[in-house]
Amino acid sequence: MRITNSLMSQSFLSNLNKNTSNVFRYQEQLSSMKQVNRPSDDPLKVSKILDLKNEIKQNAQYKTTIDDSIDFTNVQDSALASATDSLQRISVLTQQAANGTYNTEDRQAIKTEIENEVESMLDSLNTSFGGRYIFGGQKSNVKPFTINREDGNFSIEYSGTGDMVSGNTSKEISRGVSVELQTDGNRLFEKDGVNIGQMFNELFTALGENDTELLGGDLLERIEKFMNNTVNTRTNIGAIQNRLTAAKDRNESEYLNLESALSTNQDIDLAETYMNYSMEMVAYQASMNMGTRILQTNIMDYVR
């Protein structure tokens, strides 16, 4: 093979271009602190980086849902604690009213206090969180519990979803994993086919009629059942809180793993990259030095 000046120049320019490209690549990596800056650098790695970023975004969305659900159940627990206190007070007042030593005026005073406790209990259960009623079922924008006193009868009306249609709210806390928040308020006040509003109506009637036998017997038992039902609901919500807390721990662990994987695929090893950059700069400078000797030859050199 004949080596000509033209061939030497072409070879030099090709090598110089290659060295320049390598220097530029490492300069760009050092400037951006990223291994790849465009899809053409490494299509497979770029695809993996994009997948990891999507996973991190989804992980952050699940974290927001979990945190919101934990706060939601904390509000529910507080509301049920207040409702339980009211029912306990109503139970104590009913026991007192069943005492034969109490007269009509005493029982009327007890009736007034019980009515206030019922209203206080419903105020707690009508609590809203973030613009959503915590026991409104699927109708979280509608006040769930209201008192109706038409025609001298006392009743509690529930405006949320429940009964035949599940009023619980499902939340997805990770891919393919959901948890049901206990938002069906209808289940709180239905026990053995009896609505708590009907029970209170009978309680107020018994107080007006001084029916101590009914007050100290069936009515007191039903109050205890509704109170136990509220406590059981609170227990279920506590179990959900524990599950959400465990899900939050897993979510945070997954986030750290995803960030670590993203850093491995996306970020540079600064020491290694700088060393490679220095080596490429040496090669580039050597090429430039050789180029000044190759390209300085001109036609006058052949005339001499």
Automatic annotation (TrEMBL):
Q: Which family does it belong to?
A: Belongs to the bacterial flagellin family.
Keywords from the UniProt entry: Bacterial flagellum, Cell projection, Cilium, Flagellum
Give the matching PANTHER family.
Answer: FLAGELLAR HOOK-ASSOCIATED PROTEIN 3 (PTHR42792:SF1), FLAGELLIN (PTHR42792)
Instruction: List localization entries.
Output: Bacterial flagellum
Q: Which residues form the Flagellin N-terminal domain?
A: 5-139
User: Where does it sit, as one GO cellular component term?
Assistant: bacterial-type flagellum hook
Entry-linked Pfam families: Flagellin_C (PF00700), Flagellin_N (PF00669)
| UniProt xrefs under InterPro entries | Flagell_FlgL, Flagellin, Flagellin_C, Flagellin_N
Q: Does the keyword Repressor apply?
A: no
Record-annotated Flagellin C-terminal domain positions: 221-302
Annotated GO biological process: bacterial-type flagellum-dependent cell motility
Metal-binding as a keyword of this entry, yes or no, is no
User: What Gene Ontology molecular function terms does this protein carry?
Assistant: structural molecule activity
The lineage, from the top, is:
Bacteria, Bacillati, Bacillota, Bacilli, Lactobacillales
Q: What is this protein called?
A: Flagellar hook-associated protein 3 FlgL
